[in-house]
Write a structure and sequence with these properties.
The complex is a heterodimer. In chain A, 37% of the residues lie in helices and 14% in strands. Chain A is α/β, with parallel strands linked by helices. Chain A has a five-stranded parallel beta sheet with strand order 13-12-11-14-15. Chain A has a four-stranded parallel beta sheet with strand order 9-8-7-10. In chain A, strands 1-2 form a two-stranded antiparallel ribbon. In chain A, helix 8 crosses helix 11, helix 12 crosses helix 14 and helix 12 crosses helix 16. Chain B is globular.
Chain lengths: 455, 148
C-alpha cells in the first residue's frame, strides 16, 4: 500500500518522494477481543451496546491498540453541559438510557453550567440567553444520573479533592476526559488514562474497556523532554504550565528544579500547584502526563530513569516566563481601565486556595480601609468545597459582605466571546484566558485590581 | 505539478478539496468554539493563537495538522460540526492521530453517519510541503496527492 518512491522522479506528472519512515510502518493491527467483548460487538447484548462497543473498538484501531483493557477506577467526564458540541446530543443520551445502559463504575462530571445567576453579576439579557442555552439541563442531568453519575452535585474539575471523593489509586486504569483532571490523575496520583475526548469518555466507561495505548503503557509514560526550572523563586503555576505546554505540546516532560521550591509530596499546597500547572500545560499544549523530580510518584521511584534516551532539555527561567506573559494577547483596555468582572477558579479552587483568596482580598480591603471590592468577583470551587468553606470559617460571610460571590459553576460558559462580548474580564487562569477574551494577571495583581478597581 | 504522500487511513474515503494548513498543534475547541452553536454553514477558525488559520473558514476544507491540542471537550465538537454541516471535509495528520481527535472523529462517524475522512502518519515533510489553498486529493487507501 505504500508509495513507490525514489528520490524526486517525475512519474505521470506526480513527484514521488522518499517515503516517510513512520508512514512505512504496518497499518493498525486488528484489535484482539475477549469473548465477552466480541459478544457485545456482535450484538449479543443488544444493538445499542453493540454500537457502543463498535465505537470503542474503532477508537482502539485509530490509536493502534492491540487490545482493550478493563477500567478499574471511577470515571470523570468533561460532558456536563446540555449543549451539543461540547456534550452528547440529547437524542444520543436518550438512546443510551432507553437501552438501560450504565457506566461500569460511578462517575463525576466537570463543573455545572452557570445557572446560579446571582453569583455571576449578569445582565438580564445574559440570564435570558443562558436560560435558553441550558433549557434542557435538568433533563440532561437526569440522564446522567441514570447513566451512573456519583451524586447530583458531583460536578467539578477537582474530583479527587476529599470533599468530592473520586480519588483514583496509583496504577488504576481510567478512561477520563477533562484535560486538567487527566494530567493530575496520571502525574500526581500515578493512575493511567489517556486524554479521552468528550463522549468517548462515557462510551468507554459504559463497556468498561479502554484501548491499551499511549499513557496506559509503560513505554508511553516515559519522558522525552527534560524541563529545567531555573527561576529565582517558585514561579506562577499558570505561567510555568503554559510555558511547558507550549514547548512540549503532547510529549511527556520530566521537570527538574521544582522540588527545591515545593513542599513535599502530598502537601495540599503542592497538589494545588501541580493541578494548576497541569491545567495550564494541557491547555497550552496537550500534556496528559508530567513527571516532577522528587515529587510525583514515578519520578520518585525512577528518578531520571523516567527519561527515554535521546531526550532534549529546555530551560525555563524568569525571562522565559516574562516573555510568555507579555506576549499574551491584551484583548481589551489599557492601564487605568476598570474591569467589569473578575473570575478566579479555573480550574476549581481547593478549600485551602479558597481560604487564601478570601483572606487576601479581605486583607487588601482592610489595608485600604475599603468595605467592598470595586470589581465584581466570582470565586469557583466544587459544591462540597463550598459547603466546607461555609461550615468551617466565618470567611464566607465576610466575603459575601465584601461583594465577592462563590459558585460551583464553570466560567468558560459565561465569559465566552458571545455571551460576554464587550465586557472586560480579568482572571488568573491561563485556561480561561485561552478560550475567552478574559485578560490574565498574576494572583497578587488580581487581588490589587479587585480591591482598587483599576488595571 | 503534484506530489504524492502515503499515510494510514483512519476513516477512509475518496475526496478532493482545498487545503487549510496549521503547522502547529491545532486547538480544536478554541478553533471551533464559535462554530458549534449556530448553524451558519461556516466554521471560521476562532483560535487567535493559531496564526496560520485564525479567521479562515474551515468548512469543507482539507484540514492539514500535525496533531490536535487543547481541551478534551473537542471530542464532541466533530459530531456537532457534521450535524450542522460545517465540518472540514477531511483531516490529515502528519503524526499519529491523538486520542481526543481519534475519539471525536470516530464518534462523529459512527453516531452521525457522516464521515470526515481522516488520514494520519503522513510524515513531517508532508506538513512542511502542503500550503493553504493547495488542491488536495485524498484516496481511501491513504494516498494524498497535493497539487500546488
Amino acid at each position: 500500500m505504500f508509495l513507490i518512491v525514489v528520490g524526486y522522479t517525475m512519474v505521470y506528472g506526480i513527484i514521488v518522494l522518499e517515503p516517510d519512515p513512520v508512514a512505512m510502518e504496518p497499518s493498525a493491527p486488528t484489535v484482539e477481543l475477549t469473548p465477552f467483548e466480541r459478544d457485545v460487538l456482535e450484538g449479543g447484548r443488544g444493538p445499542v451496546p453493540a454500537r457502543v462497543m463498535r465505537t470503542v473498538v474503532s477508537y482502539a484501531e485509530a490509536l493502534r491498540a492491540e487490545r482493550l483493557v478493563e477500567i478499574t477506577g471511577d470515571g470523570h467526564f468533561v460532558i456536563t453541559y446540555a449543549l451539543p458540541g461540547i456534550a452528547p446530543s440529547m437524542a444520543m443520551l436518550e438512546e443510551l438510557v432507553a437501552a438501560g445502559l450504565k457506566t461500569c463504575r460511578p462517575f463525576t462530571l466537570d463543573p455545572l453550567p452557570p445557572l446560579d445567576f446571582e453569583n455571576w453579576f449578569l445582565e438580564p439579557e445574559q440570564v435570558e440567553k443562558l436560560g435558553k442555552m441550558y433549557r434542557d439541563q435538568a433533563l440532561y442531568m437526569e440522564h446522567m444520573s441514570s447513566l451512573g453519575l456519583q451524586a447530583p452535585d458531583a460536578c467539578t474539575c477537582t474530583p479527587y479533592l476529599p470533599q468530592v471523593g473520586n480519588v483514583p489509586r496509583r496504577g488504576d486504569i481510567l478512561a477520563w476526559s477533562e484535560s486538567a483532571c487527566v494530567a493530575f490523575a496520571n502525574s500526581v496520583v500515578g493512575a493511567r488514562s489517556n486524554r479521552n475526548g468528550a463522549i468517548m469518555d462515557l462510551l468507554c466507561n459504559i463497556v468498561g474497556r479502554v484501548p491499551l495505548s499511549g499513557l496506559l503503557t509503560d513505554e508511553g509514560r516515559k519522558a522525552t523532554r527534560r524541563i529545567e526550572v531555573a527561576t529565582e523563586s517558585l514561579p506562577s503555576p499558570q505561567l510555568l504550565g503554559a510555558a511547558i505546554g507550549r514547548h512540549v505540546i503532547a510529549d511527556v516532560p520530566f521537570i527538574t528544579g521544582l522540588d527545591r521550591r515545593l513542599e513535599p509530596t502530598g502537601a495540599r499546597s503542592t497538589l494545588d500547584y501541580l493541578h494548576e500547572m497541569g491545567a495550564a500545560a494541557a491547555t497550552a499544549g496537550a500534556v496528559g502526563l508530567f513527571h516532577v523530580e522528587g515529587i510525583t510518584p514515578e519520578a520518585i521511584d525512577d528518578g531520571e530513569g523516567v527519561l527515554l534516551a535521546g531526550y532534549d532539555t529546555y530551560r525555563i527561567d524568569d525571562e522565559v516566563l516574562h516573555e510568555l506573559e507579555v506576549g499574551f494577547p491584551v484583548p481589551w483596555g489599557e492601564d487605568g481601565v476598570a474591569p467589569h468582572k473578575c473570575f478566579v477558579g479555573c480550574p476549581h479552587l481547593s478549600l485551602e486556595q479558597l481560604r487564601w483568596w478570601a483572606e487576601a482580598i479581605l486583607a487588601g480591603l482592610g489595608e485600604r480601609g475599603i468595605g467592598r471590592v470595586r470589581v465584581p468577583t466570582t470565586l469557583a470551587a466544587a459544591p462540597g468545597v463550598l459547603r466546607a468553606f461555609e461550615e468551617s470559617t466565618a470567611l464566607a460571610g465576610r466575603l459575601r459582605e465584601a461583594g465577592v460571590r462563590v459558585s460551583p459553576g464553570c466560567a468558560m460558559q459565561v465569559f465566552d466571546d458571545d455571551l460576554s462580548a464587550g465586557e472586560a474580564i480579568i482572571t488568573n487562569s491561563s485556561k480561561l484566558r485561552t478560550y475567552t477574551h478574559a485578560r490574565y494577571f498574576r494572583d497578587e495583581e488580581i487581588v490589587r485590581i479587585v480591591v482598587e478597581g483599576n488595571v | 505539478m503534484a506530489r504524492t504522500w502515503q499515510g494510514r487511513p483512519v476513516l477512509a474515503g475518496d475526496i478532493e478539496g482545498e487545503a487549510a494548513v496549521s503547522r502547529r498543534g491545532f486547538n480544536t475547541y478554541a478553533s471551533f468554539f464559535t462554530s458549534i452553536h449556530v448553524p451558519s454553514g461556516s466554521a471560521v477558525c476562532a483560535d487567535s493563537g493559531n496564526a496560520d488559520l485564525y479567521g479562515v473558514d474551515l468548512a469543507g476544507r482539507i484540514l492539514c495538522v500535525p496533531k490536535t491540542t487543547g481541551s478534551t471537550s473537542s471530542g464532541a465538537v466533530w459530531l456537532r460540526l457534521v450535524t450542522l454541516g460545517n465540518a472540514p471535509a477531511a483531516v490529515l495528520f502528519s503524526e499519529q492521530i491523538d486520542p481526543p481527535a481519534a475519539g471525536g472523529l470516530v464518534v462523529a462517524d459512527i453516531w452521525s453517519g457522516s464521515r470526515i475522512v481522516t488520514i494520519d502518519r503522513l510524515g513531517v515533510e508532508f506538513l512542511e510541503t502542503v500550503r493553504s489553498g493547495d488542491r488536495v486529493e485524498v484516496r481511501s487507501d491513504g494516498t494524498v496527492i497535493v497539487a500546488a
